[in-house]
């Protein structure tokens, strides 16, 4: 008796949905914006919200400002309302009308401006209007450059798709659990993945089928289309249908026609909502730069942290070893605020836990560029760049971790005097970055080198870590292509010694790829540089001794290190809350690491420096300080612990499948 009733109810739902889809299709077709058009500025009366259109009525939706005014399914509207999303952001207003009517979109908008919803909503709606069901298999692929960003995007999909019946999953991390993935991957409607892990399925999963794919989305598209992911992206494109909708989003969008040709966009809509904006960074972001000699950077960072004990801060450093070292040493020195660290040598599970914890607490997160793109962490007050960003785009993404979605935020960048060319680049009119220079007050700087040295005496393993941090920092500078900014030859041997001392090291580690040759002409330097590039086995850097710039005494207007109303509350109890990741490589009680020393021929493999690395390609380092390609670094993650989630989704360590987004 009950079965026919259920069947009847299901039939009624199907009919209702079919009616809704018919109405939506008609509405989308009748009210769609002309190609190449932008929405007009929001009208003053906007916000009241219209009554839903009656059957046969198709109001224009290209100028609307509220999600409720768009031709979206009731399920999506309900989910958006429930999540508190009512009014659209600029990029959403501009991109959604074009994306909903099936056009390819190349979208660019500032960091934190809501690009994720601008592609997630069209994905959900497309599959709904195509009446996609779990049996139909993979309908949409979303590519993300990092595991954490993939997880975050999937969170937004789950929010928007809450009342729909799609299946979805995230494929990231290491291969552990691949057998389960292979079994389930074909039953997922929406896949969010890193490029390498998707290629793995194309190569290894016998029946992996994307022949019905409706949509391809590239978040952080410029990075995904960059050389680091080239072979993976080409492999993916060759395996998916040519006829599909493609959406590309980033805060720093690619303008390369070649890149766009690779993903075969069809008459794309170029939507760059902030192109005419005064700045390339959020208006609510205050940006500062300080010229800080290399050997003063740690003192400066420590002084900053001590003065901002009530601020949530992300600190960017250029290598895993530096992140580990500064985190471990500062933890021992107990600044009075919880400290966390995050880098690519941690398991994805640990990374997720750290991001979740950092979201909820006021603390300082030391990080590599792993967190520089896309991550949406709540209420970050400060972004501090201790090491120079490798490019303007890198700068924009790093500082974009604060001042998100109309919230205020501040950023501070330390630049060595030798890196001032970066400041010029940032200040160039075309960069559109309103950065203010602040002079550090030398007399107020806390000198902690001696304290660090004492910590290192007590913890010999930290001394080894310090040596590796020293080496990987110099190596990261050496490997940068932009020699106008990054040029080790501008530093003197005395400066390196000073830097080593600032890390608490008793002696300056000798580095194979650096030899100090003075009085070399510029031409010889160039020639030698070229020679080095050819024979990468024993590279050298010519040192061009320069007068060491001392810290400039401030003119009294500086308020970065010393806010006008210091809220410092040296609550040492806060240290009890320090999140201590169970990450073996961070443990300073591991075997001391060996370093390569000049004059002591070692049987260890020589430093490998990929001199052919294309400009702008992110350099990541393994524990030995070797540069590793982006995908190899992703593959290094060992997912060993299960994720504990509050919902009923079925999670595997490196892969999770959600049989219903509901
Ligand atoms: N229409 C909206 N109303 C309110 N909040 C929104 C809206 N759209 C997005 N947000 C919020 O704004 C924040 C930033 O959004 P999102 O992460 O999509 O930014 P983004 O443009 O992708 O940034 P990035 O370039 O750094 O990746 C998120 O917390 C999101 O929930």
Structural class: alpha/beta
The low-confidence parts are: 517-559, 562-660
Strand fraction band?
5-15%
CATH fold descriptor of the largest domain? Rossmann fold
Shape from CA axes?
A: elongated
How many beta-strand segments? 18
Catalytic activity: ATP + H2O = ADP + phosphate + H(+)
Domain Helicase C-terminal: 293-446
Family: Belongs to the DEAD box helicase family.
Protein name: ATP-dependent RNA helicase
Report what the structure shows.
It catalyses: ATP + H2O = ADP + phosphate + H(+). Residues 293-446 form the Helicase C-terminal domain. Residues 28-59 are annotated as: Disordered. The relative contact order is 0.12. The protein has a nine-stranded mixed beta sheet with strand order 7-1-6-5-2-4-3-18-17, sandwiched between helices. A seven-stranded parallel beta sheet has the order 10-11-9-12-13-8-14, sandwiched between helices. Mean pLDDT is 79; it is low at 517-559 and 562-660. The protein contains 20 helices and 18 strands. It folds into two domains: 20-40 and 58-272, Rossmann fold (3-Layer(aba) Sandwich), CATH 3.40.50.300; 278-513, P-loop containing nucleotide triphosphate hydrolases (Rossmann fold, 3-Layer(aba) Sandwich), CATH 3.40.50.300. 35% of the residues lie in helices and 11% in strands. The protein is an alpha/beta fold and 662 residues long. The structure holds adenosine-5'-triphosphate. Residues 85, 87-89, 92, 109, 111-117, 251, 374, 376, 400, 404-405 line the site of adenosine-5'-triphosphate.
